[in-house]
């Protein structure tokens, strides 16, 4: 399946799954006397709410190569009660959202690289739009994984979470965290449909992780700018972190991910991890010196 056919099929499945998750009661629609054989709204109801013909909705859901206008997409987004992230995903799939494309780059600007390390003792790492890990400080490595010991091509936060055995039990609320990570990946994938490397990542994860296949099929879409993650560190035990994601203005394709303790016990755990990282640095410095 070529790229255009894949996107057309994805648009069809996405619209169908968003329709099926809704019920007439969600939209205060009048109940008809007809029984519902399948979950969600009927195509006729979506068509009426979106201001398009039923035939048009059918052709979209059958992946028949239509390219809806921004006005039609807006109507569909309202009819299907899409979130802001889902609406952006819909527009991105069709190529209708005006986005300034920044050429993908693995080069880390020196000021940003310094910032990653200056944020110590807060665990911090820099990702690109593919979720490749471009830079990290010693606290993040001590908390999650020694990224320097991982082959460069595997140094991707999602690949590590789904494939690397060292992180399988790292998230105490794994189902939610993995689902949110995939929702974020799906938004990035739609915004960069011309990025072959990102498409290859999705394909590789589908081949290597049944968990990824199951969660990817849900078609959740959500950009995660902040949140909370309960963790299980192999040496200091359970802790919970709040994370914040920042985009450098001059490098909007990069994401600066910063972890902070959610409570006093978690702060004590992070302090212990920071001391461990500093002791390791001093030992290495003495050995090299």
Automatic annotation (TrEMBL):
HTH cro/C1-type domain segment(s): 40-87
Domain of life: Bacteria
Gene3D superfamilies noted in UniProt: 3.30.450.180, lambda repressor-like DNA-binding domains
Coiled-coil regions listed: none
Signal peptide segment: none
A Pfam family per the record: HTH_31
InterPro entries hit by this protein: Cro/C1-type_HTH (IPR001387), Lambda_DNA-bd_dom_sf (IPR010982), MLTR_LBD (IPR041413)
SUPFAM superfamilies noted in UniProt: lambda repressor-like DNA-binding domains
Protein name: Helix-turn-helix transcriptional regulator
Organism: Streptosporangium jomthongense
């Amino acid at each position: 399946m070529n790229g255009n056919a894949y996107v057309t099929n994805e648009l069809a499945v996405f619209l169908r799954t968003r329709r099926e998750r809704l019920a007439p009661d969600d939209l205060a629609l009048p109940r008809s006397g007809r029984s519902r054989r399948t979950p969600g709204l009927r195509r006729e109801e979506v068509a009426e709410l979106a201001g398009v013909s039923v035939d048009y909705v059918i052709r979209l859901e059958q992946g028949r190569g239509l390219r809806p206008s921004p006005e039609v997409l807006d109507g569909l987004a309202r009819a299907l009660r899409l979130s802001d992230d889902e609406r952006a995903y819909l527009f991105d799939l069709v190529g209708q959202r005006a986005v300034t494309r920044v050429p993908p780059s693995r080069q880390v600007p020196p000021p940003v690289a310094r910032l990653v390390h200056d944020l110590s003792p807060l665990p911090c790492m820099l990702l690109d739009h593919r979720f490749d890990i471009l830079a990290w400080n010693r606290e993040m490595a001590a908390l999650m994984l020694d990224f320097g010991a991982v082959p460069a091509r595997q140094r991707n936060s999602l690949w590590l979470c789904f494939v690397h055995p060292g992180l399988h039990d790292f998230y105490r609320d794994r189902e939610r965290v993995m689902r949110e990570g995939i929702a974020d990946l799906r938004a990035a994938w739609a915004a960069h449909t011309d990025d072959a490397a990102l498409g290859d990542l999705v394909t590789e994860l589908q081949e290597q992780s049944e968990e990824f296949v199951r969660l990817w099929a849900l078609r959740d879409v959500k950009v995660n700018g902040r949140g909370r993650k309960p963790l299980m560190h192999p040496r200091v035990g359970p802790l919970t972190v709040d994370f914040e994601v920042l985009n450098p203005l001059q490098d909007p394709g990069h994401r600066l991910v910063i972890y902070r303790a959610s409570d006093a016990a978690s702060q004590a755990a992070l302090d212990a991890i920071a001391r461990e990282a500093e002791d390791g640095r001093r030992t290495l410095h003495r050995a090299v010196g």
